[in-house]
Amino acid sequence: MINTAIQQTTHSLPTVLHQISRLPRQIKDGAIRYDGLFDIFPESYWSRFTLLHSVTLRCHLSGPARLRLIRRQVDGSDAETLLCDVVCNDVEAVLSTPLAAVGADESYLLLEVVPEDAYPEPLLSAIWETSQPAVRTPCVGLTITTFNREPFLVANLTRLHGRMAGGRAIVVNHGPPGLEARLKDQLPENPAIRWIDQENSGGAGGFTRGMMEHRTAGDITHVLLMDDDIDLPEDIIERTTAILSYSHPEVCLGGAMFDYHHRNRLFSAGDMLLPGGFAIGHVAPPEGCDISTPEGVDFLARVHRPDFNGWWCFAFPLQALDWVGLPMPCFIRGDDVEFGYRLKRAGMPTLGWPGLAVWHMPFADKSAPWHMFYDRRNSLFANARHRRVGRLAAISKLVGGFAHHLLRYDYDRVQAMTLGIAAFNMGASKMANWSHRDHAMMIATTSTMQIQDIDTAETLLSTAQLLKPQHTSGLLRSLRMVGRMILDLTGLPTGKPTAYRLAPGTIWRPDFTRRPALVIESDTQGRTARIYRRNPAESRRATLRCIKALFGMVLHFHQHVPQGFPSPRQSTSSMNSGD
Q1: Measuring CA to CA, which of 222, 230, 233, 407 is 20 to 30 A from 93?
Q2: Please, how many CA atoms are within 13 Å of residue 484, restricted to the half-sphere of its CB?
Q3: pLDDT score recorded for residue 23
Q4: Which helix (H) or strand (E) covers residue 144, if one does?
C-alpha cells in the first residue's frame, strides 16, 4: 500500500489547491463518493506538469466517519486502488499521499466517506492542499472582452468578487461607452477591476488590448482570457493560480467548455488542428461526453495534448509576448487558433486541465453565413505564416467548400468565403486595419441572398412536401455533383420549383438523392431557419468571382505575415483614444 497517513491538525499554512464542492455525485455500497469533475484531484496532470510531489486532503467532519482515499485509473478498466482507509472520530483529519510517478498509468484521486448512522452526511468541507512550498508566485490578470452582454458580465464579476487571488481584471467594452457607470449599482465595489471603453476592434483587438495593459502594469505574470457569454465557477482564478504556483513555467492552461443549456454536456476540452490545414477538431469523444458519469470524468482526467484552447478560458505566461508577439489582428474567429498554435511551436504547450471549465452558449446558436468570411481569410493568413498547406491542397479545399455551398443554394456563404479569399489577397496590413465599419459592411453584403420573410415561409410550409435526407455516395455521388453543377451554371431547367421541407434539425445538403429547387430548413423546435432557392444566374456570377479570387490567392499564397503585430513593445498610449 502506498505510504499514506492520517494526521492531526498542524499550525502550518498549506497551499490550497482546490475545495471539494460537497455535492456527491453517487452513493456506492453505502459510501458517499466525491468524484465529480470539480471534486477529484487530477493526479496525472499534477505529477507530469508540475513540481508537486505529494498532496493532502483536509476534511472537516460533523461526526465519526470512515474516510477512504482512492486512486482511480482512467484507461477504461474502472480499476481503483485504496490508498487509505481509516475511521476518524475527530472533527478534522488530513489524508496524505505522494503522487504517482510520472510514468505511471493515468489516474485521479477521489474521496469516499462512509457515514455512521447518526451522521448521514458527516462531511462539512474537504480541501485538496499541500505543505510543499510553491515554486513561484503567479499573479493572474483576467481579460474579458464584452459587447452588449451586461447580464453575463454582472453575474460573473459578482462571483469573482473577493476571489481574484491577488490578481486583477480588465474589462474591455466594445459596446456603448460608459459600461462601468451603467453597472455601478449592480456590482460590489471592486478596485481589482479596470474598465476600458474602446471602439469595437473585435475579440482579437479587445483581448490584445487587455494583454498590453496587463503587460504595462508590470506585476501580472499570466493572462487569463475569457469570453463574455459564459458562466464561470467562482473559484476559477484561485484554481488557476494554484496550478501555476507549481507548474512548469512554459505551461499554458485551457478550460473545458460545457453546454450552457445542458450543463453536463462537454463541447471541448481543448482543440486540435486537423492534418493538412486549420480545420478544427475538438478534444471530446465522438459519442459525446456526460460529465455526470464516471466515464465522462475519466475522459477529462486523461492527459490530452491539444494544439490550442478556445479563449472562453485560456491562461498563458505574459512573458510569451516577448517570444511570440501579439495575437494575429483578425478581428474575430481564428485568433485563438493561430496564437495557441504559435505558442505550441515555441515550446509552450496548452493543457486542458481537469477542473478548469466554463459553461458557454452553444456555437450552433450563433452560426451565420458571414462567419465564412473570417474563416477563409484568417486561415489563409495563418497558413501563410505557418505553411501547413500547399497551394494545390489549398485550392482543392477552397473549391470543394465553394461547390458544396453553391450546390445547396447558399449564396450568402459563397459570397462570404469569396470575399474572405479576396481580403487575404489584399495583404496583412489590410487585415490589421480592419474595423467594425468594415465588419458591418461585410455582413450587409453577405446577408442579401437568402429569403427570411416569415410570412413567405409560412405560406410555403403549408404546401411543402417532406424531403427525405437520403444520401448518394461513391462514384455516383461525384458524377451527380458534377452534373448538378453543370445544370446550375448553364441554367437548364430542373423541373417545377415545388417547395420541400426538411424535418426539424435536419441540415440541407447538396448530395441528397433528390435536390429540389426550393428547400425549407427548420431548427430543432420546428421554426423556419432558412429558405434555399436555386438561382442559376447567381451561380454563374458567384463562380466568376470565386475564380478571380482564387487566381489572386495563388499569387499571394506565401505573402509575409508579421509575427504578432502591432509590435509587443508598442506603447499602449496609441491605443487609448477610445478611453
Answers
A1: 233
A2: 24
A3: 65
A4: strand 140-146
